[in-house]
What does this fold into?
Amino acid sequence: MNQTERMRRTHPLSIFIFLYRFLFLLILPLLRGFLSTLHGRLAEWFAGVWLDILLLLFLIVLSTLKWAFFQYHMDKCHIKITYGILFRHTLSIPLRYVSTLSVLSSIWLRPFWIAKVRVDTAARGIRKADFSFYVRQSEARRILHLRNEPEQIRDGVACKYRPATWSLVLLSVFTSNSLPGILMVATFVSHAGKVLGNELSLLVRHTFEETARKIAFGLPPIAAAAALLLFIGWFAAFLMNLLQTRGLEIIRTEHPLKISGGVLRQKCYSLRCGDISFVDIRQSLLTRMLGLYSVYLNAIGFGKEQADIAAIIPFSVKSRVLNRLALLLPEFVPAQRTIRPGHNAFLKFLFWPAVYCVLIPTAAAYGMHLFPTLANIIQFVGAMIALPVLWYFGVRLLDMISSGVSKQDEFYTIRYSIGYYL
It folds into this structure.
C-alpha cells in the first residue's frame, strides 16, 4: 500500500465514545456496592473492589482496541474501512454510491477541533448511519471536499439559496412542539438542581407558581398552570429549532446538493440528487390560511437524527417557494392536478372527524352534569381535547378540496394530508 493510500485512524476521542457504549456493564459493580452499603457490609465490598477495577480496566482496553483496529481511507474514488478485533472486516465502497456524506460539529466538540463524519448508502439500515466516526476538523473538511463541485449557473443565476432570518423564525414558530421543549426544560432543571442544590429547584417551582397565579385572569389554577407549561415548552423548542437552522444555505451542483447550517451543531451535508426519494411541500391549517409553504427533503441519510436539518426552503409564499425549488431541484417542481377525488368521497374525508366533533362536547356536557363540583375542570379538559379535533376537521376539509394526483415525465405529484399537515 503506497503512501497516498495509507489507512488512517479516527480521533482518540473515539475511545471515550466506545467506552460510553459499554457503561451499562458497570451496573453490576454499582449494584453490588449499593447492596453492600445497604446491609452494612462495606468491608466485604472493599475486599472485592479489585473486581470492579478489573472490569473498568477491561472496558478501557476494549475501547482502545476498537479504536486502534478501526481504520479508514477515503479519496475521490472510494472509501475503504477496516474494523473488528477478533474478526476483521474490510469494506470498500465506491464514492459514487455514497448517498449522503455528512460532517457534524457539535458545540462541545468545536473547542477541541473535532467533527463527526457520517457515511450513508442505500445498502444498509434506514435509522442509523452506515458508518460514523470522529476526526479532526481539517480532516473532515478534506473528506467533504472530495465531493466538491462548482455550483450550477442557470439563466445567469447561481443555484444557491440562503433564506432570510424571518423565514427561519417562521419555520421555528410553526413547527415547534411543546412536548420536546417541556422534556428539555425538565431535564435542565433536574440536573441543575442536582449540581446547584435544592434551592434552585425550589426557586424555579416558586417562580412557576407565582407566574401561573398572575396570568390566571379568572381561569382555574390548573388551566393557567397547564397553559404556562405548554408555552414554556413551546418556547424552548422554538429556540432549539431556530438554532438548528440558523445560517441555512443550499447549493446545487451538477451531482450533489450541498446543505449547511446550524449554530449549536454545525452541519454540512453533501447528498446525491439521484437519491432524493421525494420532496414534501408542506402546510398546516394555519399556514394554509396565511398562504405560506415550506419544503422538506426525504433522502437516504438525510434527516436521520433529530438535530438534522429537515426543511430546505422555510416558510414563504407559493410563488417564491416554487421559484426556489425550480432553481435548486427543477426535477421536483410539482405539476398541476389531473386526478381529483370523486363527488362521493366526502364521507372518507369528513365522517370520523365530524363524529369526534360531536362526541367530545356531548361527553363533556354529560360529565359536567354528573359531576357539577368538577365542572370547571371537565369544561377545561373538554375544550383542550376539542381544539385539536376541530383543527383536524379543518385539515381534512381542505384535504378533500385540494387532494389529487398528477404526472409529468417520470415524476408523480401527490397531494394528500397526514396528521395535521397538508
About this structure: Residues 97 and 301 are 12 Å apart (CA to CA). The two ends are 55 Å apart (CA to CA).
